[in-house]
Amino acid sequence: MRTALTALLAFAAGALLMLALSHRVPTAPAATPVATHAGTPSTAPAPAETSAGTTDDNTTSDNWPDQGPSPEQVMYAQHSMVRKALAELAPRVAGRPNLYVLAFGADGGEDVFRNEAEYAARLFPTRFGAGTHALLLENNPGTLEQHPLATWSNLEDALDGLAHVMKPDEDILLVYLTTHGDEDHNLLVDMDPLPLDQIGAPDLADILAKRPFKWKVVVVNACYSGGFVPALHGPGTLVLTAARADRSSFGCGSDSDITYFGRAWLVDALNRTPDFMAAFKQASGEIAQWEQKDKLTPSEPQMDVGAGIADQLSLWRQHVVPGPAIPFKPAPPSSDADHPASSP
Question: Within 13 A of 305's CA, how many CA atoms are on the CB side?
């Protein structure tokens, strides 16, 4: 549920953010289990506790660039950054279904999610050409001034903007979310020290249900992401998840450039076919082979196909002439917060 950001907006931003920097506002109970994507799931503190936080009154965060904008400046820039990103979308191609991709990399503590969200935002329009558009929201200390944050509010703001440029009864919305997930089916949304709201399965379903999009593809790449299927299931909706409701997914962490699911579905499969469901089947088999080789508990990615969405995707593909495969290249590390990496 929305808690921290609602409180943030209710007070004068300067005073509240100073309070956040000094004391940090928890966004969830301290004992919330968070899975790690890479390897066996582990029990970790809640997002506000897992982030690299305030160490004293003069230190904002170990994960915040010393030479970057202040947290208050970042928060106040968000509305204009979302508007700018929407304005930069290519014009809609008339006479055919268009695909609008919203990539959402939510954990600012690990570059793997930045890599994956940026690759998704580059892959779809580059490989599938005119009629395919992408908007990127991400949390990363290296891109605070380049891209809007991946937050609940920006997600709603971006979707509202897309609803005005799309034909909601004809075009297809694809939301690709990549981050950590917990056993209660909540997605980690973190850019420490900002007090950001977490997004659970009912929250995401409610956000989408309030908008007029008839055709949707929702990809949730997180541990336990199969728990999002019941809430998102419905006509006109394809749901793809990286794991079943009670399983971890893998391939995240400081030693990974991209998750197992991101590598298998985005890089390997979609560079061979524009068919999202065929790509999912290929990716699931590839992931199973990797997990067997590494002696990991199978993640068992899930697919739920709502009425009509397969036909609408087929109609979109009729106008697609796939271009060359798009190579995956991770962004420069953002661990050196004093020198934020530029985005591609």
Answer: 11
